[in-house]
Amino acid sequence: MDGLPFRTRSEADHGTHTSAAAHSIMPSPIINYFNSSAFTSKIEILMQHWHVPALSIAITHGDDISARAFGYANLESAVPCTTDTIFDIADVSKSLTAGSVALLDIRGCPVMGNGVDWSSPVSKYLPDDFVMAKRSYTKDATVEDIMCHQSGLPGYASMGIASEDSDDSRSVTRKLRNLALAAPLRSKFIYGHLMYAVAAHLVETRTNSSFGDFLEKWFFRPLNMSSTYSQPDAVRSAGQQARMATPYRRCPRTGFFVPLQPLQRPEFQGAGSIFTTASDYILWVRAVMLQQPPITKLGYSCWLWPRSLQNPEDLLIQLHPQTSWSMYAPGWEIRFYRGVQIFKHDGSTLGFGSTHGFLPQYKFGTVILGTGDGAKDLANIVQHILIDEVLAVPDEQRPDWIKVYKEADAYDLEEAASLIGPEYRGYGSGEELQLLTLDAYTGEYWNAAYKTIRISVKDGGLFIDATDRSMPISIYLEHVWDQYCYSARIETFPGQCVDIVRSQFELQDDVAVAFGIHLAPDQDWNGCDEELVWFTRV
């Protein structure tokens, strides 16, 4: 289905909102710049360049808060994006999950008797549910380990609600025992989502409430975040569906936008699936930046310090100008730009991209939410532009942020290609002809963590429809050599390959009895446990 050609418009009239404390006489210079025609023109050009249909931005500086919106929340009906438009903020939700755990810190917990300690093993609080593939990990992995991506678990994708075996945060937690590990505990930063679902389950268990109800009681209502919801069904139940932005993918062949549907993802609870406006979420950013309730000062001090380093051996190659490598505190990346400390976290999911962050020294914070494949990059570029303005960096010394992000994207593609073994780079050029008929491989296969997959025939080749997963994908298998080695081409959109990974079949009497695939291709397994995830033929 074709979308509509790209269009953008500034919502400078009804899409702008500015507030300031009563004693403020004039807005700060950054607020003035943010509301200027120069900024409007820059955003419109950037949206065209990055193919972003909708963008909503909120900033806070001192006592001032201002929000603006640009483009269209829905292209088909030409619905303008406003400061009240609701977006899926994806991974940006993680700061709220981390804040939930900080609220339960035993040193200042308002939920009496149900606190947690960052340095305590997760199994202490979830003895039946939290079991990892190795006993030592189960015994030693702490709350801060799982929330700083240093548990040794690779970034597996979980089962989506549209599948026959849908997950929630508890079932995701119980799946850990069936998932192979990729690194020793605390030896490496490996970004993923599953452990944040575990954190949500931890909060639910300690408070005897749903994660959504907990957020509503302790964060959304106290901070007056009246347009923030957990999962899209909550938006619909509140009668606010018309305010939701439509997520879009841009067809690489036609250049047209294809509308998608926001996904209900209970298995992503804690890792994502918060739906909010930029105007609402800036209230959360401001509360963290100024260390305001509901979290106590002690709770903040125990939370907002880095526990892990984000692989400096990789980042040294692609560090941004004047920027340090990143460290990670629960739910936040911490880095320095021109000597100034920045807390931030990006987010992306199909059709949405976002970022948020703050500079504690300057009491400046941002929330930037958008739609389209380029939304996350654009959100980061806009954030950099605003930070340069706050820091009063001379124009001639400001990096070309568009160039920086284009080069980073090109590097990521090149690195992804290098992860494919030499024998797989010649995709489709196997040394031996396919001799077995395809029905020797087709059928249902089962794995204790991933449940059922179905290998079928499509366009003359083997195919796996995994669009029911949390990260919906299609997998095309192509013969490489012998009768068991295949490459697996992964697409998130028809014709848009995001990875090519190793896969193979186990054969008995010329019939497949098992199928293995490398589902965490971005990790250096380094001999730790199994490289392939194996499915047994049913």
UniProtKB/TrEMBL annotation:
Residues 43-375 form the Beta-lactamase-related domain. The lineage of its organism: Eukaryota, Fungi, Dikarya, Ascomycota, Pezizomycotina. This is Beta-lactamase-related domain-containing protein. Residues 436-522 form the Peptidase S12 Pab87-related C-terminal domain. Belongs to the peptidase S12 family. Transmembrane segments: none annotated.
